[in-house]
What we know:
The chain has a domain at 1-21 and 126-197: P-loop containing nucleotide triphosphate hydrolases (Rossmann fold, 3-Layer(aba) Sandwich). 52% of the residues lie in helices and 14% in strands. It is built from nine helices and seven strands.
Amino acid sequence: MMKLGLTGSIGMGKSTVAAMFRDACVPVFDADAEVHKLQGPGGALLPAIEAAFPGTTGPAGIDRTALGAAVFGDDAALARLEAIVHPAVAAAREAFLAEHEDAPLIVLDIPLLFEKAGWRDVDRIVVVSAPPEVQRARVLARPGMTEARFEAILARQTPDAEKRARADHVVPTGGSIEATRAAVQALIACLASSQGR
């Protein structure tokens, strides 16, 4: 099995690229989706998060606005939240790997691959990247996003240029969807040939 770490800064199109791998029948573990499940209605992490951050959960799961307000700009609070979330996501990832142990290629979609040292657990790294002006336009078009929030998020992420420099492969997403899909398909073919398939 080749473990491919997929990452990219906010607004770069990582989710779109992950879906393209899925469409090509490559198993994808989506760390963000797992977090949403763990924090959604009836999610396993709700009691621990409510205990640590009272008033941030309810019948619909996490109140993202309230939890965001509780941890935004507070490194200690964010570390407390991560100490609750990260072990649960790691356990889910291990279950995913066991379930797909016969797959020749799997993708681990990890937003903070470099920031949280997830790069150590993969065989190759794919970075999804678009020009800064495309990234900015995409992110600022999101509901509730502001320039200040965008800049704060960027400040916590490894710069795109550094990610690209550390990547084994870069998938450009600044052009058409078709061009991106072609790049993903070419990458899958390249990885398959490197495995002798």
